[in-house]
Amino acid sequence: MDIDRTNKRILALLRKDGRMSAAAIGRAIGLSRPAVQERISLMERSGHILGYHAEVAETLGLVSAVLFVQIAERPCEKALQWLMTLAGVTSAISLAGEIDAIVFATVPTMADLSALNDQVLASPLILSAKSTVILRQY
After folding, report:
1. Beta strands in 6-125 (DSSP E)
2. What pLDDT does residue 128 have?
3. For burial by CB atoms within 10 Å, which of 4, 8, 39, 53 has the most?
4. pLDDT tens digit sequence for 27-53
5. Helical (H) or strand (E) element with 126
6. 35 in helix, strand or coil?
7. Within a 13 Å sphere around the CA of 9, how many CA atoms are in the beta-carbon half?
8. Contacts of 99 by beta carbon, 8 Å cutoff, 6+ apart
9. Peptide linkage before 108 cis (omega within 30 of 0)
10. Nearest Cα to 94, choosing from 105, 106, 79?
């Protein structure tokens, strides 16, 4: 499926607000609701839209962190797939360069973050990992 300029505009709006209605998206970009729904449906089926996520209020006391990971073996796919199975991991970005991946995690407590760090570092798939707590997301 081709991701044209219109699809990119739809994706940008959904990335900002995953609950935005097809009608509201249509009004914003000048398409009918059915046309927007069809484009979204095609992007879901083709794997361009992988899911919709909730942004959780900071007041819940959850700990969000970023892990900077160096992967021990190539290709990196096996390690990235394993990282995505870990409790608390919400997403990962594969990179080229000194750091192979950035892993985003949200866990209930600092103790859970420490346990996640230990689990990641214990894997033979991982060369190194350093985590940083996210103070605030804008």
Report:
1. 63-71, 89-94, 101-107
2. 96
3. 39
4. 999 999 999 999 999 999 999 998 887
5. strand 126-133
6. helix
7. 13
8. 68, 69, 70
9. no
10. 79
- Beta strand extents in 72-117 (DSSP E only): 89-94, 101-107
pLDDT per position as a tens digit, 95-121: 999 999 999 999 989 999 999 999 999
CA distance 119 to 131: 13
Cα 94 from chain centre: 11
Side chain identity at 121, as an amino acid letter? L
pTM: 0.64
**Rounded-to-integer distance, Cα 12 and Cα 14, Å:** 6
Does residue 91 have a pLDDT over 80? yes
| Residue closest to 116 by CA, chosen among 81, 65, 80 | 65
Q: State both tokens at 108.
A: 């209930």
Q: Which of 101, 78, 105, 81 is nearest to 91 (CA)?
A: 105
